[in-house]
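Fold it.
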Amino acid sequence: LQLDRPSNDDLRKLGKDLKFFKGVDEMFQELDILLEPDHRAVGVKIEHYIVSSGIKTLIEGSDLMPRVKRVFGCEFGEDESGRIAFPKRVISHTGKTQYLFRINKGMLEPNEDVNDHMPEELRPVPFKNMIYLGDGPTDVPCFTVMKKFGGHAIAVYNPEDETRASFRKAYQLSGPADRIKYIAPADYRPGSHLRLLLEEMIVEIADSIVERRRREIHEAKVSAPTH
């Protein structure tokens, strides 16, 4: 018995049925409103990326795609009949961290060598300006990278999981494992604990960018010492 193999387009169509936690769909536009005129004046903007060990084409078919700049996930190659035949790209737990560095350096295309040296001041998305959300062990390497380079990280859990397994994963990351500072229920609606954390982090990051630009302008106007 041979299974009828799907195509990537079939998976993309299935992505339309993906369901998300409460408030996710509306969150993107609502977060963008947080940026004040002085933030936008210096070029501050909010970008969203998905780094997943799941199937990229499923996510691409979901309602999130118009709101997300780039999705990194596992990909399948197709044979001459257009059916899935082999894994084209597999993203493991540790492999996820490569994509954080791709975002950090602005090297979003697979053919760009993310290992090429790039001075910190030239990297378009500094780690300290990133917020990473994850929900379990597959995110541990990324949480470690965020902590090492001064980024922000939140472990989310399913508040409707009566077994508490989802909560325990997040708790382990924030408690005994000491990987992150914050855990929150995966409720993205306004006023929720998670949204309050995200909003404070975003405003704090945006303010720090404005302050840094002002300082750079001021220092550039001050004459260099002659002795």
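The radius of gyration is 20 Å.
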